[in-house]
Amino acid sequence: MKPLIVANWKCNPTNLKEAKLLFDSVKKRVKSIRNVEVVICPPFVYLSVLISQNLSSAISFGGQSCFWEEKGAFTGEVSPLMLKNLGVQYVIIGHSERRKYQRETDEMINKKIKAAITERLKPILCIDKLSQIEKDLKGVPLKEFKNLFIAYEPLFAVGSGRPCPQEKAERMRILIQKKLKRRVKIIYGGSVNSQNAQIYIEKAGFQGLLPGGASLKVKEFIKIIRSVSQS
Ligand code: PGA
After folding, report:
1. Spatial separation of the C-alpha atoms in residues 220 and 225, rounded to whole Å
2. 3-class DSSP state for residue 117?
3. DSSP label of 203
4. pLDDT value for 55
5. Which tens digit of pLDDT belongs to each residue from 18-40?
6. Domain ranges, ordered by start, for the chain
């Protein structure tokens, strides 16, 4: 399987011009890189413009979250169906910043995962503790696991510049795999950069990466992609 590199732009940049520029610079450079799948998760407001700028490119798109209902009186929410209808394929669910600032609970995350699956989006479930897996995936049919990604994102490593040591990350990857009793795709996120990207894929055995800060710097992001495309 090609490594999956998911750029989580978070709440950046602050205007469309910069978003287009960042996307365009990445798109141009990614063209020549093989054996890697690149997903960009910009803020919702930029999605449709960037998707229209992406004709015939190899980049896929993801939402940074979604609601659990498909439509209705839910002010401020974006539904999985809306994302699907825009041409989005992936959606990050349960990111630690949403658990913290939006007070997302495991119950809410579970509903979001199920709603995303109903719309055939590929959920990228972010977890920090093993115990979250059971609650977040409660009632998800096993046959849906093939379209699911688990992102191990240790809290101490997210946005801190302190990446998780390789052995600890690898141990957690194995525990997640054991807990789910089947092969699932597990990716790593938390202070990923061009120096450590390859280690998580080649040595710790992850199937992809979820860089945040580094995905906003074109050169650094491209270095990350190149380093794993060669591994
Ligand atoms: P970071 O963010 O790479 O800036 O640590 C990762 C994430 O929050 O997904």
Report:
1. 9
2. helix
3. I
4. 81
5. 999 999 999 999 998 989 999 99
6. 4-229
Active-site residue, from 18, 37, 77, 95: 95
User: For all residues of the chain together, what is the average pLDDT?
Assistant: 96
CA of 210 relative to ligand 1 center, distance in Å: 7
Q: What contacts 24+ positions apart, CB below 8 Å, involve 9-13?
A: 9/40, 9/41, 9/42, 9/43, 9/64, 9/212, 9/215, 9/216, 10/43, 10/64, 10/97, 10/212, 11/43, 12/43, 12/216, 13/216
- Tell me the pTM: 0.97
- In tens, the pLDDT along 182-191 reads 789 999 999 9
Residue 86: phi and psi, rounded to 5, are: -80, -20
From the CB of 124, is ligand 1 less than 6 Å away?
A: no
CATH topology of domain 4-229: TIM Barrel (3.20.20)
- Percent of the chain residues past pLDDT 70, beyond the cut: 99
Q: Which two tokens stand for residue 76?
A: 């401020």
Q: Which residue has the tokens 């998911």?
A: 6
- Of 179, 183, 153, the C-alpha closest to 168 is 153
Establish whether residue 208 lines the binding site of ligand 1, counting it when its CB lies within 6 angstroms of any ligand atom.
no
